[in-house]
């Protein structure tokens, strides 16, 4: 105890309060995320329709389910932490228990911050996607990040928990539910992206005659460019094959400007090799 830095002791006295503050802050961030998603849902219904509305609703519904799963996970984690402290502190106070197990406590704080930050980032990414200002890939990355941070929270909570603890079993079940909901966000995002891109590419209903003619000419130019590029690649492929045959020793001399592959050598009758003589 004498060798420990005094500044570290002061910091550890505050660890217990920091754990409670971070868990409360995480819960508040998730509640705020749910409210923002509901606001985005009503905004999407007012400002979009058809395929885009369907895609936005599906993505936002999956995000809402994920937030609810995270909220339940945080509540269960908080109950498990209280159980751990009550069973392990003995005559010590809660603050003393957190200070004594400072590394475990710091792990809880870090994991809780990661969960809250991930939830906030997911909502911001969803907001940008609904407003057509963001990328669908951002939602996918945020979902993976949330799954990783919740796994970190479960691991930190699990370290000092009794194996027979009911709260631990509930926490592990909540973690599996979070992973499932995060996978649903990824799936709905990918399918929505495919729908939007397909519709944007093939929807010509709102174009005027002049606009249609311009799009038709631009598409013809692209087709000619691709055909020219394809022909060039075919020529390149032919030259590559000639060089391959030449290096392999199966190419004859050029005749009349055309290359003819050499005929395959005839196979002779395979004979059984003579037996080795005994010494």
Automatic annotation (TrEMBL):
Any one biological process term the GO annotation gives: clathrin coat assembly
InterPro entries with a match to the protein in the record: I/LWEQ_dom_sf (IPR035964), ILWEQ_dom (IPR002558), Sla2_fam (IPR030224)
Residue ranges the record marks as coiled coil: 207-243
Pfam families referenced in this protein's UniProt entry, alphabetically: I_LWEQ (PF01608)
Occurrences of domain I/LWEQ (ranges): 7-248
Entry superkingdom: Eukaryota
Compartment(s) where it occurs, according to its Swiss-Prot or TrEMBL record: Cytoplasm
Keywords carried by this UniProt record: Coiled coil, Cytoplasm
Region (Disordered): 254-279
Molecular function GO terms recorded: actin filament binding; clathrin adaptor activity; clathrin light chain binding; phosphatidylinositol-3,4-bisphosphate binding; phosphatidylinositol-3,5-bisphosphate binding
Name of the protein in question: HIP1R protein
Source organism per UniProt: Fregata magnificens (Magnificent frigatebird)
Lineage summary: Eukaryota, Metazoa, Chordata, Craniata, Vertebrata
